[in-house]
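batch job 7 of whatever, protein = Lipocalin/cytosolic fatty-acid binding domain-containing protein
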Amino acid sequence: MSWAKIAALGGMLALTLAGCATPPETASLRKPGALISSASLFDPQRFGGEWHVVESGIPGCSGTQNWAWDGKSAYRLRGTNCAIKPAAVDETVTLTGPGGRLLAKDAFGGEPIWVLWVDFDYRVAVLGTPSGRWGMILSRQTPPRPDLIKAARDVMDFNGYDMTQVGK
């Protein structure tokens, strides 16, 4: 095998492993070294609409978020940002990859936004970031169904979130 082929295979292996890598250790709601994954069957159109912030790493932060899907590759997000500090948000969020991987310029600290899970009927969703700097649970209705919130919290726990730091 030539050196060029070996180098190409090494590059492909590195890219494959990068998708499974642990996030860098920073101030985090997630356990150091924990793996994280996004929702593989994410449907951007079904995710669009109004959501209520149920739980986040910001105590007492609540409000609504409206994710207006443009039908192509982005949302217009308006509402409450409960990621880094309570704030209003009004900006474009771009779909950057499969599995509900998103990015905003300023909202959510400008970090990648991953939809970690959404229930089959898109009633409850879990958003977070690979760094673990923030995570939140959203619901279409208030009050949310307790069984769906329990499932959302289990997903956050599975993705390494310290659930003692994520609450109402």
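notes: Strands lie at 49-56, 63-69, 74-81, 87-97, 101-104, 112-118, 124-128, 135-139.
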